[in-house]
C-alpha cells in the first residue's frame, strides 16, 4: 500500500503558493490540516456558498490544492458541493456539535424538557458562533398537538431571531444596535416573529463563562401573555446557569 510522507504534505503543482495567508512556517504543525480548517472557516462565513475559485483567491492557494482538500472534506461530509459548484458546510459538523461544551449541555437538557412541557412549545439551547446563532439542543413538547420542529445545528444571523437577540442583549451596549436588542436588555428576554408566524422568546444565560448562550422557546402562535413566557424562559436560563461551574 502506498503511503504519503507527512513532512512533505501534498505534492503541490509547480507555481503553487507556499500556503494560506497567515499560515506560518512552523514545521511542527500540519500545513494540510491548517489549510483544510481555514477552508472550512471561509465556507462557514459564506452561507450562500463559495466556489473553488473564490476560496483559492481568498487563501492565496493554488486551485489544484484547494480542490484536493475540498474533495477530502466532502468525502467525510464536512463540506458539500451543490448543483452550482458552490461549497457549503456539511452534516458531519452537525453531528460533532453535540460534543460541544458537554457540561452546559448536560445541565440544560432536563431543564429544557421541563420548559417545553410547561409552555407546550419547542425549547432550545443556542450559542453564538461568530455572527451566527447555532442551535445546540432542541427539545420538542410531548403533549402539544402542534409544535415547531427544527434541526440541531441550524444557523441564523444573530440579529434575525429571538435567540440571537438574547445573546446580543447580554453584551455591552453598542453605539449601533440591532432592533430589539435594547428592549430585550431592559426586560431580560427577547422576542421575534418570522414571516411564517412562528414566535420566538429567549433569554441569555446569566453566567460569565456562558454569556454567549441563551435558552428559549419557539411556538406557532402568539402566547396570551408573552411576559409570562418570558419569565419562564428567564427562570430556565437561571436554572441552567446554576447547574454549571
From TrEMBL:
Residues 1-31 are annotated as: Disordered. PROSITE patterns: HTH_ICLR, ICLR_ED. It comes from the Bacteria. Residues 92-245 form the IclR-ED domain. Keywords: DNA-binding, Transcription, Transcription regulation. Pfam families: HTH_IclR (PF09339), IclR_C (PF01614). The keyword RNA-binding does not apply. Residues 30-91 form the HTH iclR-type domain. This is Helix-turn-helix domain-containing protein. The lineage of its organism: Bacteria, Bacillati, Actinomycetota, Actinomycetes, Micromonosporales.
Amino acid at each position: 500500500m502506498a503511503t504519503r510522507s507527512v513532512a512533505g504534505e501534498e505534492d503541490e503543482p509547480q507555481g503553487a503558493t507556499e500556503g494560506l495567508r497567515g499560515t506560518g512556517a512552523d514545521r511542527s504543525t500540519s500545513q494540510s490540516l491548517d489549510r483544510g480548517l481555514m477552508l472550512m472557516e471561509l465556507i462557514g462565513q459564506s452561507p450562500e456558498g463559495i466556489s473553488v475559485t473564490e476560496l483559492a483567491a481568498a487563501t492565496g492557494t493554488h486551485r489544484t490544492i484547494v480542490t484536493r482538500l475540498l474533495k477530502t472534506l466532502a468525502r467525510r461530509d464536512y463540506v458539500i458541493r451543490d448543483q452550482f459548484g458552490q461549497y457549503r458546510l456539511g452534516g458531519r459538523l452537525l453531528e460533532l456539535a453535540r460534543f460541544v461544551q458537554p457540561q452546559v449541555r448536560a445541565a440544560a437538557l432536563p431543564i429544557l424538557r421541563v420548559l417545553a412541557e410547561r409552555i407546550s412549545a419547542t425549547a432550545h439551547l443556542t450559542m453564538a458562533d461568530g455572527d451566527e446563532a447555532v442551535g445546540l439542543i432542541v427539545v420538542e413538547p410531548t403533549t402539544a398537538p402542534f409544535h415547531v420542529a427544527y434541526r440541531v445545528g441550524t444557523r441564523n444571523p444573530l440579529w434575525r431571531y429571538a435567540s440571537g437577540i438574547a445573546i446580543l442583549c447580554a453584551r455591552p451596549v453598542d453605539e449601533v444596535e440591532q432592533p430589539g436588542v435594547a428592549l430585550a436588555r431592559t426586560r431580560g428576554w427577547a422576542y421575534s416573529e418570522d414571516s411564517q408566524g412562528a414566535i420566538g422568546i429567549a433569554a441569555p444565560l446569566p453566567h460569565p463563562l456562558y454569556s454567549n448562550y441563551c435558552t428559549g422557546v419557539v411556538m406557532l402562535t402568539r402566547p396570551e401573555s408573552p411576559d409570562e413566557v418570558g419569565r419562564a424562559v428567564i427562570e430556565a436560563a437561571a436554572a441552567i446557569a446554576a447547574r454549571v461551574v
